[in-house]
Design brief:
The longest helix has 45 residues. This protein is an alpha+beta fold and 325 residues long. The strands form three sheets. A four-stranded antiparallel sheet has the order 5-6-8-7. Strands 1-2 form a two-stranded parallel sheet. Strands 3-4 form a two-stranded antiparallel sheet. Helix 9 packs across helix 10. It has two domains: 76 residues, no CATH class; 188 residues, Muramoyl-pentapeptide Carboxypeptidase, domain 2 (2-Layer Sandwich). Helices cover 51% and strands 10% of the residues. The structure holds zinc ion.
Length: 325
């Protein structure tokens, strides 16, 4: 009797194990199919993403991830129809890269392969790549002390600030006016130079109305348009009309050559930002500013912006394109 019962118990136990095993394999199979289906579905979905499509053009996963961040319809079309070239990715890592100019950088580089990427970005951002005076825009006057006037941004013929004041004669040759804040800061700077170097700075020229600039440009134009454009602004394209620019010299070194070699010029280059000024047309930036170096021409932008421009070693044109516009 006891043996029979035991046999029955063993049989039940065996059936139970068998059932559990089937269940286990069944579950495993379902899970396996499920996981694979999800994977296939995900792969299928991933292949529809820009990140995947960009990789098929030769970019690494990391590069594709970065490129996805700058995509718009035009850039997407470009990247998916042109096999990878180094510049297509490298350009986006340039410090002053602007997404809106992506295709312009690529275009410009094709015809200017000797230029480095930083220069290409600078020239395109500032419109310098368009050629001087080729495309012109109205200066945005709401930017106050940060208005941009160069070979692309112009003022109205009758534009004149309403806070122009005369620069007292101990700081300037006669008849010079500038925005009141500019005069105030220039005088502070003037006093500091006098105190530290014993040198007297003088303003040679500052605010100039349209008509005066027209006269100056005409004189330069006697030597040809290219010469004139390199040394003088066309009327309404002159920073002097803003009332924010001053041409500085000193009593000790009144000529431009002497001034350029003077200690006061060195001092100004090093310290003028503390008073809100920048050297507007520095050495080595001619292709961006469109002007030959002018050791005398200083522009007021306020201390914060002047400091940033000095620290980053950029021109106001680049600053404007990247930080303001
Ligand atoms: Zn000037």
């Amino acid at each position: 009797m006891a043996i029979k019962k035991r046999k029955k118990r063993i049989k039940i136990r065996y059936e139970g194990v068998k059932f559990l095993t089937y269940c286990f394999f069944g579950l495993f199979l379902i899970l396996f199919i499920l996981i694979n289906s999800i994977k296939i579905y995900n792969d299928y979905q991933y292949q529809k993403t820009d990140e995947y499509k960009i990789q098929t053009m030769g970019y690494s996963l990391d590069e594709a991830k970065d490129l996805v961040k700058i995509l718009d319809d035009d850039i997407r079309e470009f990247l998916l129809t042109n096999p990878k070239e180094d510049i297509y990715y490298n350009i986006i890592n340039e410090k002053y890269f602007l997404k809106k100019n992506y295709l312009k950088y690529i275009d410009y580089q094709k015809t200017h392969q000797s230029l480095d990427l930083r220069t290409i970005v600078a020239l395109v951002n500032t419109h310098a790549s368009d050629g001087w005076y080729n495309n012109t825009y109205k200066t945005d006057l709401t930017k106050n002390n940060l208005i941009l006037v160069n070979k692309f941004y112009q003022l109205e013929e009758d534009y004149q600030r309403d806070d122009l004041v005369s620069i007292p004669l101990q700081y300037s040759y006669s008849g010079n006016k500038a925005a009141s804040e500019v005069v105030e800061k220039y005088i502070e700077m003037h006093k500091k130079v006098k105190e530290e170097l014993g040198v007297t700075l003088m303003v040679n020229s500052s605010y100039r109305p349209y008509s005066d600039q027209e006269e100056i440009y005409k004189q330069f134009k006697g030597k040809g348009q290219e010469y004139a454009d390199s040394y003088a602004a066309r009327p309404s394209f002159s920073e002097h009309q803003t009332g924010l620019a001053i041409d500085i010299t000193s009593i000790t070194n009144p000529t431009s050559t002497a001034f350029k070699n003077s200690q006061e010029y060195e001092w100004l280059k090093e310290n003028c930002h503390k008073y809100g000024f920048i050297l507007r047309y520095p050495d080595g930036k001619e292709t961006i500013t469109g002007y030959s170096t002018e050791s005398w021409h200083f522009r007021y932008v306020g201390e914060e912006v002047a400091t940033k421009i000095k620290n980053e070693n950029i021109t106001f044109d680049e600053y404007y394109a990247y930080y303001i516009e």
